[in-house]
Amino acid sequence: MSINASSPHASNPLAAGFNSATALDFPSAFRFGSATAAFQVEGASGEDGRQESIWDAFCKVPGAVFGGHDGSVAADHYHRMPQDVALMADLGLDTYRFSTSWPRIKPGDGKLNPTGLDFYSRLVDELLEHEISPWLTLYHWDLPQALGERGGWANRDTAYRFADYALEVFEHLGDRVSDWTTLNEPWCSSFLSHAGGEHAPGHTAPSEAVAAAHHLLLGHGLATSAMREAAGPGHRLGITLNFTLADPADPDSPADTDAARRIDGSFNRVFLDPVFRGSYPSDVLEDMAQAGLGRHIRDNDMEIIAAPINVLGVNYYNGVMVAGPVDPPIADSELAFASERGLARRSPMVGSERVQEISRGLPRTAMGWEVQPEGLERLLLRLQDQYTGPAGIPMVITENGAAYQDVPDADGFVDDSRDRLAFIDAHLRAVHRAMERGADVRGYLVWSLLDNFEWAFGYSKRFGIVRVDYESQRRIPKASALWYARVAASHQVPAWT
Fold first, then answer.
1. What are the structural domain ranges in the chain?
2. 3-state SS, residue 375
3. Could you confirm whether 377 is annotated as catalytic?
4. How would CATH label the architecture of 24-493?
5. pTM as predicted
């Protein structure tokens, strides 16, 4: 099946501010790939020695996950891995970012499980055989439940357990894997999980959230230093952070500009500054003083966290326009996600709970997120200017993509030309613009290769460029996948004519 994604449309409907009638060339070394996460795609949750993660436990909490869904089968990647790698090769992808499952490799954080580790060894070999570079993420939120019961990331000891796990995986796979990410989106596994209650373990304690954030960063630093000692010159070690771009509703309003500062601090700089500058921003420490962020810093912690990295993974989905503050604070029951599932939740934005998000009337994805590709351009330029550029560190877009309400035809094919394809096109154009203006970006990995378990939304949201029929587990490339294959093969984003 083929589709000419450029012919039916006069212009990209989501590329406001971009000349979508122009074809754009990317450097020959620029990487075009895709990404997934272990818990979201693997399934086989009780097979070959794997034990529970905090997400297995969270899925059992009534109402925690949409429809009572869980990750026990997911996209069945554990059993269909060779088929999925062949599919990547058919699409011409040169890089595959995946995560290893800590509870599969070290069940209960106990002894190494050779069978669990062997799955990833076979995956790496399969990728290399198809000339696809493996990019390994060590932690994408599936903490062993045994550690969760001992306090999880709110317990400082978890940082040291993570470093041990990371080094063991590195020692077994480092001979064939060059690209390593310690953590994926620590904002989600700290603030969204421990203050917002939306992700496992589902807690709503700001004091836990700041502890988890600090210990995640400490674990990153400890793991990076341990792997660095064993690494060769060809290894690239890094971290993946998720970012937003906060714009004040009224740039002349002190309250609105302070709201934007607070969101930037509690989402972006709380992780960026420790990694790149070895300290938390003073305003963030002040904003989070009541939650107690500063109380968790011990001697040498910040030096450990600032261990040198080789690459920054950039995850970007949307920006926000903000105003503030709302008074009285928004009640937990009014939070959109909570009302959808009937659960009590609170704001995950510790220190900026009273900030209001203002709609700009932009198109929205099925997640309710505004589509703002120009925000990615501005983000990359800011990172280049203030963080990665001065440190001489390149960036890779490790996640970018969108969920939409896919409507398959009788054959299961999804023509997502006007939404997901247009979204990816617009964001690649934003990346190209940023590169032309000096941002050192080396690759783009679309989220996601496959439709999968979308955390608390279960299987109700589809991000994949490949449709998964969950009843048959059949894989059907969408229009976006076929278009992206064309981009990967030519290193050119075609014009919309």
1. 24-493
2. helix
3. no
4. Alpha-Beta Barrel (3.20)
5. 0.95
